[in-house]
């Protein structure tokens, strides 16, 4: 037979076990501070049930009121913890007001009519229905927990409220000498038994809620971590791009310095040759001396121009396009090689004098490098031709020699920095002349290709776009023609 004391022992064990679980849960997840209210609620219920077990067969008024009030305090703490956990309005004042009213009502009933159990049951029913209605309201408003779990918890609370109401209704109609069925020896035992089952169901619902909350927090942390990883990757990519840009700029600067250093040699050779000729001629030929001095003066002017353009001034102003007469540039090229002592080997031919938008110093440097390269790798008695012709939307400048040519498999590599063909090992050079020509032509949107010239020799063909509405430079600047 399940008497009242047996059911109280089962209820006490259940409440103690649940209180222990929630205490450990709160200590494990301190950021969920709401769990301490749940733990306190179950502790209060376990304390109230234990006080019921300890009172004697003829309890005093305090022994009747205090255990019941302690259990009601546990219910208020559960409602407070659930509201905090769901982030809903707590209505703490309702719970405190009900506790005070409940204590006053039971004290009055016990003092006036200690045997009136029905009045005490009706008061407990009002308390229970009010507190659990507040809990149901918070669950109905919540949108964090799954709907199925919220409504299951509401159903559990509604079942206990209904059981409390049924007990009150039955107390009204029961005769004074009513005795329970043999299975439940006390007429209140069935209510306490379903209360124990209610605690188990509510415990399971709360446990699932906490699990869902932890799972949600974990997903949010994973999403936050994923966003942080993506942000770090983006920053790493930006840093990599910045470093790559800086490296490209440094290479650009280094390449420019190599090109300028290479181009310094040409005017210096003119100065050296002129100085040697002055030493040989001396005062014998004032006209020759004046001519050599003029060559030195022009070579020095070119050196100063290179310094001003490529070293002393802002790198962004390296490229300076302007309308120039190509015939004037060709005259300067012929005069240059005449002072170098190679003028008789250079044959210049142009269909007409064409005006182009270009950097005169860069175009002259390109032509000097191409012609010098052709002269260097051709036998001393063979001429080199420099021809200019105009095609639709394109200006063709080609430099042709009768030299050793370029091996078939290496023609595509000509123009790389420091590259020299395998058959040019015996000829002095640095491998920067054609490289600098390609770099300078890139400012104009032009390019140079090397084609075989019959059985021997090479043709360096420059294709210069004409007309050019927009001339691109290698560093991204654009000049409108």
Task: Classify the beta-strand content into a percent band.
Answer: 5-15%
Helix content: 55-70%
Cα-atom radius of gyration: 51 Å
Please report the number of helical segments: 11
Which SSEs are present, and which pair or pack?
Layout lengths: L3 H25 L6 H20 L6 H26 L5 H21 L4 H25 L5 H27 L15 H93 L4 H27 L9 E4 H14 L6 E5 L4 E4 L1 H17 L7 E8 L2 E7 L32 H10 L4 E6 L5 E8 L4 E3 L5 E3 L1
Parallel strand pairs: 2-4
Antiparallel strand pairs: 1-3, 4-5, 5-7, 6-7, 8-9
Overall description:
This protein has 481 residues and is α+β, with helices and mostly antiparallel strands. The chain folds into 2 domains: 227 residues; 162 residues, Heat Shock Protein 90 (2-Layer Sandwich). Helices cover 63% and strands 10% of the residues. It is built from 11 helices and 9 strands. It has a 5-stranded mixed sheet, with helices on one face. It has a two-stranded antiparallel sheet with strand order 1-3. The chain has a two-stranded antiparallel sheet with strand order 8-9. β8 and β9 form a beta hairpin. α6 runs antiparallel to α7 and α7 runs antiparallel to α8. The protein is rod-shaped. The termini are far apart.
Features:
481 residues, 2 domains, 5-stranded mixed sheet, alpha+beta, 10% strand
Quick synopsis:
The protein is α+β, with helices and mostly antiparallel strands.
């Amino acid at each position: 037979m399940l008497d009242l004391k047996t059911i109280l022992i089962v209820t006490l064990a259940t409440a103690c076990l649940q209180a222990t679980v929630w205490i450990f849960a709160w200590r494990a997840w301190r950021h969920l501070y709401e769990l301490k209210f749940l733990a306190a609620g179950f502790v209060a219920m376990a304390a109230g049930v234990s006080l019921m077990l300890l009172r004697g067969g003829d309890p005093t008024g305090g022994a009747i009121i205090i255990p019941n009030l302690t259990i009601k305090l546990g219910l208020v703490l559960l409602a407070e913890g659930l509201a905090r956990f769901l982030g809903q309005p707590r209505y703490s004042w309702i719970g405190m007001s009900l506790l005070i009213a409940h204590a006053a009502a039971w004290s009055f009933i016990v003092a006036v009519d200690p045997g009136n159990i029905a009045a005490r049951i009706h008061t407990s029913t009002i308390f229970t229905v009010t507190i659990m209605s507040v809990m149901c309201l918070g669950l109905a408003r919540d949108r964090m927990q799954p709907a199925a779990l919220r409504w299951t918890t509401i159903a559990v609370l509604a079942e206990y409220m209904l059981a409390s109401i049924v007990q009150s209704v039955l107390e009204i109609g029961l005769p004074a000498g009513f005795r329970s069925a043999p299975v439940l020896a006390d007429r209140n035992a069935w209510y306490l038994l379903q209360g124990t089952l209610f605690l188990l169901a509510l415990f399971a619902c709360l446990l699932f809620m906490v699990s869902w909350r932890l799972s949600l927090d974990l997903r949010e942390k994973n999403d936050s971590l994923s966003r942080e990883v993506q942000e770090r990757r983006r920053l790493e990519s930006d840093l990599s791009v910045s470093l790559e840009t800086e490296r490209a700029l440094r290479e650009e600067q280094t390449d420019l310095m190599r090109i300028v250093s290479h181009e310094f040699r040409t005017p210096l050779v003119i100065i050296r040759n002129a100085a040697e000729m002055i030493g040989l001629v001396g005062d014998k030929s004032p006209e020759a001396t004046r001519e050599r001095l003029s060559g030195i003066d022009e070579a020095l002017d070119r050196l100063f121009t290179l310094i001003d353009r490529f070293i002393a001034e802002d790198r962004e102003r390296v490229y300076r396009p302007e309308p120039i007469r190509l015939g004037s540039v060709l005259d300067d090229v012929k005069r240059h090689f005449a002072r170098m002592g190679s003028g008789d080997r250079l044959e210049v031919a142009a269909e007409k004098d064409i005006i182009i938008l270009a950097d005169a110093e860069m175009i002259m440097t390109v032509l000097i490098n191409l012609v010098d390269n052709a002269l260097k790798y051709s036998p001393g008695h063979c001429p080199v031709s420099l021809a200019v012709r105009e095609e639709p939307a394109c200006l063709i400048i080609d430099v042709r020699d009768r030299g050793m040519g370029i091996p078939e498999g290496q023609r595509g590599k000509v123009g790389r920095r420091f590259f020299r063909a395998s058959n040019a090992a015996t000829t002095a050079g640095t491998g920067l002349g054609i490289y600098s020509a390609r770099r300078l032509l890139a400012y104009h949107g032009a390019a140079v290709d090397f084609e075989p010239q019959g059985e021997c020799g090479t043709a360096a063909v420059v294709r210069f776009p004409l007309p050019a509405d927009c001339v691109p430079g290698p560093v991204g600047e654009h000049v409108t023609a």
